[in-house]
Design brief:
By secondary structure, the protein is an all-alpha fold. Helices cover about 70% and strands about 0% of the residues. The chain contains 15 helices and no strands. GO terms for molecular function: fibroblast growth factor binding.
Amino acid sequence: MDVRCRNMVQRRLVEQNTDYRLNAQLQHACRMDIAKFCSALVLDKAAESTELQGKVIQCLKAQFVRHQLTKTCEPVVMGIVRDAALDYQLDPVLARACASEIQNSCKDDRDMEECLKSRFQNREIKSPECKKEVARLIHEGKADVQADPILYKACLHDIKHFCHDLTPGQGHLLSCLLTGLESDTIALTEECRTLLSKRVEMFEYAAQVAPVESIRDVVQQIANSPSRNYFVVVAMGVLGIIFVGGLFCGRVTKRLPANLKNK
């Protein structure tokens, strides 16, 4: 491909990943997911005239990691995640949060994302925002091993040999590899075993820095859910039962001494 053409394509991809409205395929495939999980971002009036700074796609990526996307949306987001894993510029949120690391510590590294992961694992990244985004990047690699190109390349033979019948995504391939890592009967290649062991340590640290699921996430999902009224009714019903039960128990407790006196 001609250099000018390649640069133009890359620029268009960066624009699409910055503003989901420029990606017609994503809009169509993920319209239900955007309405369900990212409505607050879309409905923000202040965002209507801006590029949204990649926040909607980041929102979809978060649900991709949690395996919450619809069957039509998941492969599209998976493609975006895989492309971004090969070129950090296609991840505008990461590029913005880790600008200092990219321009200084990793400027001479050919694989920018691997450099960020390495510095993350070695506790060398100081920026909380950058640490959070690199942790998110690592979570994406757990959900789809092809979003971790270095690990995928190191373990490709093992994936083809031991995990060939599994569907990519939702952590299936990584789960298969981790089973092989812990097994005495499955012999992973040395390259895969070594890198996978290091990745496990990184996964654990990423889970500490940015847990995949939190109480706040659950509350937000309920708030954005079309069934939120159902959750409210159920919660009110439970509180009502507790209240009535408390009143009943209180009356029984007050009457008990009188009954004992009559005896």
